[in-house]
Each structure stands twice: as C-alpha cells, then as structure tokens.
Sequence to fold (464 residues):
Amino acid sequence: MAERIAKIIGLDIAGIDVMAETLSKPVGKIGGAVIEVNAAPGLRMHLAPAKGKPRNVARPIINMLFPEGTVSDVPIVAVTGTNGKTTTVRMIAHLLKGVGHSVGMTTTDGIYLRDRLIVSGDMSGPHSARVVLRDPMVDCAVLETARGGILREGLGYKMADVGVVLNVQADHLGLKGIHTIEDLAKVKSVVAEMVREGGVTVLNADDEQCVNMAQYCRKQIIYFSLRPSNPVVQEHIENEHTAVVYDRGYITIASGEMAIPVARAVEMPLTMEDRALFNIQNALAATAVAHAMALKIEEIRHGLVSFFPSPSQTPGRTNFFTIKDVEVMLDYAHNPSAYQSILDLVKRMGHKRRIVVFDMVGDRRDEDIHDMCRMIARHCDHAVVYEDVDLRGRKEGELMALSEQAMIGAGFDAQRIDKISKETEAIDHALSIAGKGDLVCIMSGRVEQVIQHLYAMKEDFELT
Fold:
C-alpha cells in the first residue's frame, strides 16, 4: 500500500502517516486510513528512537537514489580565453543538445537552462556556474569562465571534464594586478589545469601562451590549429595524440596516420563562406570538445553546419541586418585582437564603403585605444565615434577626443570623423550617410539594446 501511494503521488522518498487501531494486522482487515503523505520525511525517530533499536534508514535511501556505478555528476565543459568564448560556448551547447543532452549554459549574455534565458547580463562567473550545476533538469553544463570571476571567487566548480583555452590576448591589462600577457595567461591557465583525471584539455596550438599551459595539464590534450603544419600539432599527432586542424578547407580530426574530415568550413554559416577565420578557430575548438565528449563524426558535422550566427543564436557576434539597402553588422569586439579580426573580415567582404560606429571603454589603457583607432583608420572609410554613459574614470569627452586624435595621427581624414554623444544617435547618423552597397559596422557592448534599436529601424523603414 505504501509503495503504491508513493508511486501515485510521484515520490521517490515518502513518509506516510497511518491512523489505525494496530499495525500488527493488515489495515485492510481491521480498518484505518492514510491521513498524510510527507515529501520530506524526518529520519530522526529511526536513527535515534525514544524506545527500541536504532536503524540507519539513510543508507538504503541513498543507495536507492544513487546506485553504485551510476553517473551522479553533471559533465562540465569550461571555456576561457580572451576572444570567442561566448560563440564557442554556444556552439558546444548546440552540438550537445543535438545529441539529446539537457544543457545548462553560462555566457556574457546570461544563464540559459535548456534554451531558456533565466537571467540576463554578464553571467560568466562562478555564481552563475553554481546556478546551472544546481538545476535538476541539467545533465550537461557548458560554462563561459571569464578572468574577472576567477580573480574574484575562483571557478564555481571543483573539476571539469573538458577545459578549453581559446587564446590569450591583451585585454583588461592594468586592472586587478594583471599587467602583462603572462599574468593574464596565468589566470586563464586555471581552467586548463583543473580538469579531472581522465578528462581532456583543449588548447590553441597557434597561441604561444596556450601552448605553455600544457605543462600544467593532465595527460590528455587536444590541440586545435588553423595550420596543419604547426610544429606543436605535428609532434602531438606523431605521438599518437589528437589534434583538430583546418586542412584544405575542412575541419579535420587528426591522430597518428589518421585524418578524418568532419565538415567543410564553407558549409558552416558561422564562417561566412570561409572568410571569418576567427570563427573557424572557434569551430575547431568546439569540434575538439565534441570529440572529447564522444560525439560521432556525423553528429559533429550536423551540429557545425546547423549553427547560425543570428541575433537569437549568437547575439552581438557578427550579426547582420539589412536596413534600406544598407548592410549592417553588429559585433561585441572590445579589444585590439578582436578589432583586428572583425576589421580584417570587413575588408574581405568587398563593400563599396565601410562606415564604423564605435566607442572606447574608459578603463582600457591609452595604448590599447590608440591601437584600435589605428586599425579603424586603416580599414574603414568613415568613422562615427560616441561615448558611453559610464566613463569608467574618464572625463566627459576625453574618450572621443582620444579616439579622434589617434585616427588623425594614423592618417585618417578629420572630415571623415563624426563625434556624436549617444550610441543610438550615432547609429542613426551612420545609416543616414550610408548608401546602397555600403556596410555599417557597429562595435558595441550593449548588444540587446542595439539589436532592438536595429529591429525598430528596420520595421519603421519597411512600414514607410
């Protein structure tokens, strides 16, 4: 009777209160009733009864809930690096969802549980990781793990099954005691090091700082590289270890004498017809993770070619819009390395004119601001610079003046620089001076705000 009641209600553990004259005879014969079913019954009366023999009922309860030999941990994939973290996390989650996993994910956009956004904002720290790992519906966690969270509180988990380091580039230097690339690499190497015995560390063989992390890692490393001839990769493969490389247009898994093409890069929407090299790198890393998680080649290929860089799938990461015959690209680029990647892509796309809308973050070093502005001067035809409300210690107008001076110093015509105070007004101005065949490239950290503004502009234009 008790087992049937528990199953009807849907409880694994239940405390059932019965009123009867005696329990020495069947209740069905002498009469009685169930008056209460408790979902969280107390065990104290069994463990320490006022009278009678103590019984350790906790042991059979735990053994029933967690039979020996069954998987009790949530597999964890942790991803760090300077650029590409969010895109790679989303791609890995997409691959794992494609084979039936119930994925929890943390990113700089928010916390996602099975595709549902539960908290928006930058959620790449340890608290967000713990939210995902506590959720009973999650059977696999993919965690964006940023520098700031590691410095504040650590990782938010004990050990990962797969740790990924995408790259280490100059960003946030001069903050919180991190002054050099080597300092930054030391922080990010924590993700590479804290991988369980039998787990896998995925490292970028094209990045010197990532290669140096191998000394801290456990035995199993998968390198990824844009160059199959990379000496690190060659030695790794010759020693019968695994690498994922970009070989003759294909994402390829290589080990020893074996090389398995997984997918053509040109077939993957994320690569923009093979032009976005930084996204090919992200795809290489995601493929390495999927291989480490025992996905089949066909499952990996299907996931790669079905992943689209859209405002819903990858908000703020090379999102494209068309407004009044003008192509608009939005990207989250905010450091010299990311600017270089995006502007290289912009140059290869062959538009008539390239108009960039951007601001600079106040807590960046002057030298980093100068580097980014010089890149704009080299790659773009017109610049619209604005200033964020949060100046992060700078004076009003200082960042716009600094940006203008850097571009002019790099040979950019002052007549092709417009300074506008607000971001939305700067975007509107850029579109007002753009013509058919032009590209307006928006660099912004306020991704959701810009996406909504662009959708509203698109709708207004179509209505008129």
